[in-house]
Amino acid sequence: MTKQFPKGFLWGGATAANQYEGGFGEGGRGFATSDTSRAVSPEERKTMGGSEFNSPMTLEKLKFAMEDTEGLYPKRWGSDFYNRYKEDIALFAEMGFKTFRLSIAWPRIFPKGDELEPNEEGLAFYDKVFDELNKYGIEPLVTLSHYEFPIHLVTEYGGWKNRKVIDFFVRYAETVFNRYKGKVKYWLTFNEINILGMTGYLSGGLLFEDGKLHLDEMYQAVHHQFIASSLATKAAHEIDPENKVGMMLARMEAYPATCHPDDIMNAVQKDQSNLFYSDVQIRGEYPRYMNRFFRENNIEIKFEPGDEAILKQYPVDFMSFSYYMTSVTRHPNNQTAEQKATAGNLITGEANPYLEASDWGWQIDPVGLRVTLNKLYDRYQIPLFIVENGLGALDTVEADGSIHDSYRIDYLEKHIEQMYEAIEDGVELMGYTPWGCIDLVSASTSEMSKRYGFIYVDADDQGNGTFDRSRKDSFFWYKDVIATNGANILND
């Protein structure tokens, strides 16, 4: 029997407006938190800690970035999808995409975030994008909020710690649900919602004038996002019963370093801190294990009357997540001075001696994807969707213009094989959209040289280049994967 993925499996690719769209200042778009992300130096890139992505933001730093005419802010131009969407979508269609994940930039629809009426130019832009996708039979998978929070809501309201922002978000969500009814069926509310519990600024618009991240404000902001997500899910279903709404988690699978019971318990707690966000959005209530964490960290979440009912009545339809790597965790009592650390997608941990690592130190663990798919499906019993996965690497353009990225093919092939094994295990998997299917600006360090795409974009870290597109070897490989529904790699 020929092995292949289930009929209707949604193969595609993923991007985000803040890293890909560009069009800064065009079409009435307002300032976003991503617009203040400067390009960091090569020395700072060596660790995630050197990134502004996860360091506290102050009002002074924010205002400086908005007025700065000397620094580099690559997310303002991204990969120029704003002007090249037809060309890019044609390339996605050539690969055979069934779906394309993108995000709507909130400040392109409501430039300040709190207006009563939307920006028609912004709405019209996405009309054109969705019409182009639909022309090729590509299903849009749309994220409502992906690290591009309107700056006005930061300076005037204090970001998501202010409950008023819930109403602004719901107005935005209802606006796009109504506008794109019949054009978009699959929606995600907040990208990697758990990142707000670590960063505060990009997705939450939180400022910390003392330079320290305040957990109480961050978790209150998360609570407001939970309520906003539930109300958006309610609206999506009422406006179009065909709509399917998912939550999105940065999945952080952590293995215990040893079989020492303390290490095992440490891994359990790491898992709970990660899955708290999906537990609330899928199960519709706060898990009891968070009570101790809140108590020991002096966190008191303010619930308004009706909040518990909202969470319970309007859970999401499916779970989506990003998966790049796993980590190893060890209880502090068992750590030694020589313990090595490994950088990752906003997580650090001990290096796993059984795994190789990428150019950026992210450990490569295909079997870990099967592990996490099984664990998530066992826990929630709802459809899963892998909406980010991929290898950031340095690509070399040969003299003839070709790009031989066998390392990327190898990475993706091994992960796809493990996806198939998970489906055979009984996991209900909707689809797969590898991250950065076309080269775009890095979320963490605002560099272009950390490339993920099947499609090469001729631009460097300073924004120099033609921005012309070209096909890498992986482009043709992935085209064959989609055309055979995975059979070409599953039956070698």
From TrEMBL:
GO terms for molecular function: 6-phospho-beta-glucosidase activity. The active site is at E388. It holds the Pfam family Glyco_hydro_1. Its EC number is 3.2.1.86. Residues 25-53 are annotated as: Disordered. The keyword Hydrolase applies. GO terms for cellular component: cytosol. GO terms for biological process: carbohydrate catabolic process. Keywords: Glycosidase, Hydrolase. Belongs to the glycosyl hydrolase 1 family. This is 6-phospho-beta-glucosidase. It comes from Streptococcus merionis. The lineage of its organism: Bacteria, Bacillati, Bacillota, Bacilli, Lactobacillales. The gene is bglH_8.
